[in-house]
Structures are given as structure tokens and as C-alpha cells.
Amino acid sequence: MNWYLFDYGMVISEAPTEADWAALEEASGQPMDESGPYWQHRVGYDGGQLSTLQYWTAVLGQEVSEGRLAQLHALDLRAWSHLNPETLDVLEAIDSTGARLALLSNMPAELADSLGESQNWPKYFSKVFYSGHLELVKPDPKIYQHVLAELGVPASHITFIDDRAENIEAAAALGFATVLHVPGIDLATELGL
């Protein structure tokens, strides 16, 4: 049995828009650039070491009220909720063949739970693995080993699709077939659909 293992961010979802970043910046009072606190604390949030409250407290550098926390969480959720229609078409095509689909995403647990409740794409996946629930983050080999154990197939029976080269390399080192999802990719062709 073969599996297709998809990442979420920048594969199933598109990048947050400038308006998303501007809204987060305005609400948090913090810059959203790569060296800012939003990204500095993200690995801990993705990996389940920080709760949503702890994450936003670290980002803001101060205590966060319940109302402000709800606002920041909602804006963060919205930023990562723009779906890639081409990937959705590929998911539907794979699903129609009877092949198995799984998801492996670096995503905080509370964000993952909110996304799963609010969107339709999870219906395609018979297995989902979120870093926040596992307390492991790609490209740590342990997260891929966990997936292998859960799916119960050799790594060569899994095609992993991710947008980050380091994640692809870590999976390939364990024997996964891999596809690097870059802007403009014809994913259906890459997967031989």
C-alpha cells in the first residue's frame, strides 16, 4: 500500500497575505519579519513546548488578556487558512484513485485543532500528524520515524510533499520518496497523476 504524505503550510495552504501580516503586526505591536519574535518563538509553539497563551506572551513580551489572545489566535488562524486550489485538486485526484493520504505538519496543537474544525480539506486524510500534538518538529528524524510506525509501511511506499528543503532531505535520508513543493510546481505531473 502506498501513501502520499502532505505538509500543510505553503503546500495545502498558500502564504499569508500582506494584509494578514499587517493585521497581526497591528494587533501585536510587533514586526512580523523573519527575525521578529513571531518567528523566534515559533519552533517552541509548533513543537508543543509553548501553549497559545505562552507563545503570544513571549511574542509580545508581556501578559496577554483573554480578549487580545483570542484576537491574535484568530488572526494567526486566518493567516494560515488560505488554501491552494491546485493542491486541493491534487488531493481530490489522489483520493479518487483509492490511494491513502496522510498529513505531517509543523503546527501548534491549538491552531491545528481550530483549522481541522473550520475547513473541509481534512476529509481527504485518514491519518494526520501535527508537531504540536507529537512534541516533535520537522526535520527531526524522530517525527518521520513516528509516521512510519503509524502508517506501518516501508519508507519507500511513502511520497512526502513539503515546501522546505531541510524537511525533504531528512525524509529522503530515511528512504521516503519526496517532492519539493516550490512556487509554480505542477504537482499533479510531479506525482504522476
Notable characteristics:
193 residues, alpha/beta, Rossmann fold, 2 domains, 5 strands, 49% helix, HAD_sf, hydrolase, PGP-like_dom2, hydrolase activity
- The coarse silhouette is globular
Domain module count: 2
Helix content: 40-55%
Compressed to H and E, one letter per element, the order equals EHHHHHHEHEHHEHEH
What separation lies between the terminal Cα atoms?
17 Å
CATH class categorisation of the largest domain: Alpha Beta
Number of strands: 5
- What percent strand? 5-15%
| CATH architecture title of the largest domain | 3-Layer(aba) Sandwich
Please outline the major beta sheet: 5 strands, parallel
CATH topology of the largest domain, what is it called?
Rossmann fold
Unreliable spans:
none
Calculate Rg over CA atoms.
Answer: 17 Å
Q: Give the count of helical stretches.
A: 11
How would you summarize what this structure contains?
This is Putative hydrolase of the HAD superfamily. With 193 residues, this protein is α/β, with parallel strands linked by helices.
Describe it.
InterPro entries: HAD-like_sf, HAD-SF_hydro_IA, HAD_sf, PGP-like_dom2. GO terms for molecular function: hydrolase activity. This is Putative hydrolase of the HAD superfamily. The protein is of the alpha/beta class and 193 residues long. It has two domains: 3-14 and 83-190, Rossmann fold; 18-79, no CATH class. 49% of the residues lie in helices and 12% in strands. The protein contains eleven helices and five strands; from the N terminus they run βααααααβαβααβαβα. The chain has helices at residues 18-28, 37-40, 42-46, 52-60, 66-79, 85-97, 109-118, 131-134, 141-151, 165-173, 187-190; strands at residues 3-6, 100-105, 127-130, 158-162, 177-180. It has a five-stranded parallel sheet, with helices on both faces. α1 packs antiparallel against α5. The longest helix has 14 residues, at 66-79. The radius of gyration is 17 Å and the shape is globular. The two termini are 17 Å apart. The model has no long low-confidence stretch (mean pLDDT 96).
